[in-house]
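Q: Protein A?
A:
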Amino acid sequence: MLFGPRNTRDGSILLSTPNAARGVRTSEKPHVTVPGKVEKIIQSPDPKEPEKAQINIENADALYKEVRIENTLTNKDGKTVKLKKGAKVDVTVEATDSGVVPKPPDE
């Protein structure tokens, strides 16, 4: 389950799980990071709802390339920032050990 984006030390964006949000390092869990690009910024029709950033995930299947997230991030100084159209991002997916199985060598 995704909770929201957060910045990594190198400025990339991490779509995080609950453990990542609590500070568990990505490298300690099974994970994959793929490149993406902010395709567009979507303003909410309801002023009480935040805008969304639509991210195009490179090399994903055609029907699953896009993900929309709340466009609110925190920078290294603790200040609230937002993505802009065209920004290059890294999308990281993490899993718990109980959420994975060994992959056979022939796949």
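Q: Protein B?
A:
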Amino acid sequence: MSPLDVQVAPARMVDVPDIVALVERFARRGEVLPRPPEEVYQTLREWVVARQGDRLVGCASLVILWADLAEIRSLVVLPDQQGKGVGRRLVTAVLHQATELEIPQVFALTRKPGFFAKLGFHPVARETLPRKIWKDCIHCIKFVGCDEVAFIRDVAARPAPHMASAIQVPAPAASGNGHT
């Protein structure tokens, strides 16, 4: 199968065991934090996956930290798929989510700064991300000696939707029984 056979899509319930196993594989090597099954189930809407046929070859999540900031988390790609554009496609998918949600900035903490630099991210001091530091980093065993670099990127504003494509929700019909 070629890299073109890899499909990137929002995660589904059936993907959870594979996401957990893939993230755990990289967590054992200290490359990402582990994500237990209950956390992945609870945050499933945040995840995107890359599949090559029936095989999960990569995943990432977009975690909203505040109205103006989201984080790319748990970006992992199987070693045999690295360097083939799978990671770039996963990042593109979560950046698209951020655009749709009108989140102006997305960041990642990474040990692969070159990868994020090629995607338009630029380095920033971790101290400029206090919501991340006090929400998650403070609890990490590597907090004092963290070897990750923070990279951030502005996300393009979503174009205004055309009126014809806007979702119209009809008002409930009035009924004479007093119930609405």
